[in-house]
Amino acid sequence: MKTTNIMIVGVGGQGSLLASKLLGHLFVKKGYDVKVSEVHGMSQRGGSVVTYVRYGEKVYSPVVSEGEADYIVSFEKLEAARHAPMLKKDGKIIVNTQEISPMPVIIGAAEYPTDILEELKSKGVYVDGLDALSLALEAGSAKATNIVLMGRLAGYFEFTKEEWLTAIEEVVAPKFVEMNKKAFMLGYGQ
Length: 190
Fold this sequence. Notes:
Elements: E1 4-11, H1 16-29, E2 33-40, E3 48-56, E4 69-74, H2 77-83, E5 87-96, H3 103-106, H4 116-122, E6 126-130, H5 132-139, H6 145-154, H7 161-171, H8 177-188
Parallel strand pairs: 1-4, 4-5, 5-6
Antiparallel strand pairs: 1-3, 2-3
Helix pairs in contact: 1-7, 5-6, 5-8, 6-8, 7-8
């Protein structure tokens, strides 16, 4: 079995670490060898955060190299564009259509690029965009955006919806389980 490579990209505070923990937990329960690696930028200051999740029969390295990602789950459009070179030729980007301005945009030194997703698509990149923030708010909290995106990602895997929901029950703090299950289902159903 080949190794499957997933990148989770976003900015600090968006829940990428919980998302990677959920994936790792599910893949281990299914009997795969799993490696998870977290790369923090200035995450507490709204900087870029990247997490690699790799699973397969035997995984030797936790890091995904350029051109190797099967999936990129992006919590924000600009992060999707920034990390697109990591994608395999037939890889997929699942992206929250939210825009979070980086510091150069906030201070007026740069402008947020327009038509980011359309530009990626024009280059032949498979882009699956959704307004995960609105769905998370519908589930009960903006903080559930990460789980909405996991719900969307789940549609690309052979695991059952029930296996994903059980993993949420086992990984998420009990008081947030129901909200996160609702968030997952909203992403899954889109």
